[in-house]
Amino acid sequence: MKPRLLLLHGALGTHHQFDRLRPLLEEHFEIFDFNFEGHGGVSTHSDYSISLFASNTKDFLEEHRLDDILVFGYSMGGYVALHLEYQYPGAFQKIITLGTKFDWTPESASKEVRMLNPEVIEEKVPRFAQKLKEDHAPLDWKAVMLATGKMMIDLGNGDALNQEDFQRIKGKVHLGLGSEDTMVSVEETEQVMQWLPNAEMKILEGIPHPIEKADSAAVSNYILSAIVNEGL
Fold first, then answer.
1. DSSP conformational letter for 227
2. Nearest in space to 68 (alpha carbons), one of 95, 42, 86
3. What CATH code is carried by the domain that includes residue 89?
4. β-strands 4-8, 30-33: how paired?
5. Which terminal residue of the chain, N or C, has fewer Cβ atoms less than 10 Å from its own Cβ?
6. At what angle do helices 50-63 and 76-87 cross, to 10 degrees?
7. Burial letters 39-65, b for 16+ CB under 10 A, else e
8. Neighbouring C-beta atoms of residue 217, cutoff 10 Å
9. Would residue 154 count as lying in a domain?
10. How far apart are CA 26 and CA 209, in angstroms?
């Protein structure tokens, strides 16, 4: 019986972020994924928050009776996995992240939100705007972007996990960061690795932040090495 692996997508994304990665993993794992509320056409009546998405994940695990499952969280998905493990120790057998941002302050949140202007993106990056429109239909992609920006501001204003919270996460965690990631720093990832009681870190050479632009074979190999081997 193959081990079970849950894939959690990033901000502004959907489970389709894993379309190129999934075939490489299916040989080794039974794969599960879903869309967080407010993403991929899934409606919501709640403000976006890591707590909401962690609750979505808990509901999915309970609905599908998935205990003792591995999880790979890309970007925001990694933060969601860590948040759920903080709330419910033992939720996951092992957590693997890639490109997860941990440095949330009012200043860092404002910097990220400045890049989430729907009108500017529609004008300057129309192909990306069209992709978001298609990914989140029938939801309004502009509303998705604005709600994501508000969530980031909330993280910067105190909703983020702090040192004490990370120290309470006792499970095995593998923190991955692409060497070409311009959103997440080595320093913030190393800091959280030091706070987590049972964590390791891996730099993936040549990998940028957007998983759609990453070498899927390299990401798959990272996940496999983190799960099969105790070290990286």
1. H
2. 95
3. 3.40.50.1820
4. parallel
5. N
6. 70
7. bbeeeeeeebbbbbbbbbbeebbeeee
8. 11
9. no
10. 23
CA distances for 96 relative to 13, 82, 108, 121, angstroms = 18, 10, 24, 31
On the question of a cis peptide bond just before residue 138, with omega within 30 degrees of 0, the verdict is yes
pLDDT tens digits, one per residue of 180-203: 999 999 999 999 999 999 999 999
Non-local (6+) Cβ contacts of 232 within 8 A are 174, 200, 201, 202, 222, 225, 226
Domain count for the chain: 1
Supply the DSSP symbol for 15: G
For 178, which DSSP code? E
Domain membership flag for residue 115: no
Residues 6+ away with beta carbon under 8 Å from 210: none
| Strand pairing class (199-208; 173-180) | parallel
Nearest to 75, CA basis, from 151, 177, 169, 3:
177
SS (H, E, C) 96-109: EEECCCCCCCHHHH
Q: Give the per-residue pLDDT at 228.
A: 80
Distance, CA of 175 to CA of 98 (rounded, Å): 6
- In single-letter form, the type of residue at position 213 comes to K
Mean pLDDT for all residues in the chain? 96
The string of pLDDT tens digits covering residues 42-77 is: 999 999 999 999 999 999 999 999 998 999 999 999
Question: Checking DSSP bridges between strand 173-180 and strand 69-74, what pairing results, if any?
Answer: unpaired
Range of the domain at 174: 4-101+162-228
